[in-house]
Specification:
Oligomer: single chain
Order of helices and strands: EEHHEHEEEEEHHHHHHH
Strand content: 5-15%
Structural class: alpha/beta
Radius of gyration: 20 Å
Strand order of the largest sheet: 1-4-8-7
């Protein structure tokens, strides 16, 4: 991918010199647990206990929000290779800003640019504590994308998906989740949490994000090198649910899919690359078996 010397986004937050400590369960997780176990009455009881505890001074309000803290590390110095990766993700994010600002204008809407947080090991987010072992992720609560750059080493070594465009695809996919959040699609899927077919809705959401990553690639073909698309397709293939399940547990369990199979992820990315319009992005009206 041709990225050196090009504009980098100003919406990248460098948190690599910060150290996030683990805390207690965030309030969202406690509410979800109480709701599942005891229903609405359980949530109300949890709220009452929390308010009484705060008023009596026996409960720290920060603990209800996760109890985590962040400290600045003055001794952190990135390697030249890591700093190059940092500049790379700035350029990729800038490309997504250009594409989605234009696309939202076509939809007669205004695109709100996300922030990409680059961190190391652990990070505190509006969605709770983030860990590098989770891989890159998007938090709708603060509209930020989080990535530990060491994931790119894992992408090459553990997933056998090297290459800068494979790395770019990962960012474009997470930006796709931001687009879904702005359009209200993520909220509609989140409202189905707890339903028997929730996993199917999750798969539809993830495949749509793959399509949106393909749309982004379509709009950036002038910056692509020979073999870039193959790198992205290889990454999509290697991080399909079936491929991950086969590596981790030795068998494939389709009803437990949350992101889609390797074949589905490659197909929807490629479809976005071929069509390059929002008109083809509807993964929710297609029969689940035909995705």
């Amino acid at each position: 991918m041709k990225w050196r010397g090009r504009r980098g986004s100003d919406n990248v937050e460098d948190a690599r010199g910060q150290s996030a400590s683990r805390g207690g369960a965030p309030v969202g997780a406690l509410i979800n647990l109480a709701l599942r176990l005891f229903g609405v009455k359980g949530v109300l009881a949890l709220a009452a206990v929390g308010l009484v505890g705060v008023s009596l001074g026996v409960v720290d309000p920060a603990a209800l929000l996760g109890g985590s803290s962040t400290q600045q590390r003055s001794d952190y110095q990135p390697s030249a290779e890591e700093q190059a990766r940092y500049e790379f993700v700035r350029v990729v994010l800038a490309d997504t800003e250009d594409v989605w600002t234009e696309e939202f204008r076509r939809l007669d809407r205004q695109y709100r640019e996300p922030v990409l947080v680059v961190y190391r090991s652990r990070v505190n987010t509006a969605c709770g504590a983030g860990d590098a072992r989770m891989g890159p992720f998007y938090c709708p609560g603060d509209q930020k994308i989080y990535i530990d750059l060491s994931f790119y080493d894992e992408l090459a070594s553990q997933f056998d998906a090297p290459g800068d465009f494979a790395q770019a695809y990962v960012i474009a996919h997470e930006v796709g989740h931001h687009v879904q959040n702005l359009l209200g699609i993520s909220g509609q899927v989140a409202a189905k949490r707890g339903q028997a077919d929730y996993n199917q809705h999750s798969v539809r959401l993830e495949l749509q994000a793959d399509y949106l990553a393909g749309l982004w690639a379509k709009r950036n073909q002038q910056y692509l090198d020979t073999g870039d698309i193959e790198e992205a397709m290889r990454a999509a293939n290697q991080i399909g649910d079936d491929a991950i399940q086969r590596r981790s547990q030795g068998k494939v369990v389709p009803h437990a899919f949350t992101h889609g199979s390797s074949e589905q992820r490659m197909r929807w990315f490629n479809r976005g690359l071929e069509l390059g319009t929002m008109a083809g992005a509807d993964t929710f009206s297609v029969a689940y078996e035909a995705l």
